[in-house]
UniProtKB/TrEMBL annotation:
Protein name (Swiss-Prot/TrEMBL): Replication protein A C-terminal domain-containing protein
Domain Replication protein A C-terminal residues, every copy: 50-130
Protein source organism: Alexandrium monilatum
Family matches, as Pfam families: RPA_C
Superkingdom of source: Eukaryota
Amino acid sequence: VQSADEVSYHMIEVAYSALKLQRGQTEPWTPAPKKLVLAEAGISPQKTEVAAAVEAPKAAAAAAPKEPLSGSALKKAMLRFIQKEGEGRPEGVSLAAVCKHVDGTPAGDATAALQKLVDAGEIYTTIDEEHFLCL
């Protein structure tokens, strides 16, 4: 043991592993893909073209840049993302994935918000300083 931090880290890791084992196997969050049956539904080509035209504005809206988050809204968004994405991943969520989730926010602000969450005890680093999990 080279520092007291290693002992604390090990104790937290043991407690986390015990909680994971007590919960048991969880169902995957991703639902099974829906099967597309065009012949049975009797969809005409016109309806298919209209559906494609309706989906185009949705894609354009999704491609629009997000407005940057800051303060408590940024921390809440990051915490929810880490809780959702970190489930079942012992290595945690990478800094790059968190920054990509809040892509409208500068990377420096995102890193500072993550450090505040670590300092507050809401999240902790796992395999290195760039992977996080919720407590």
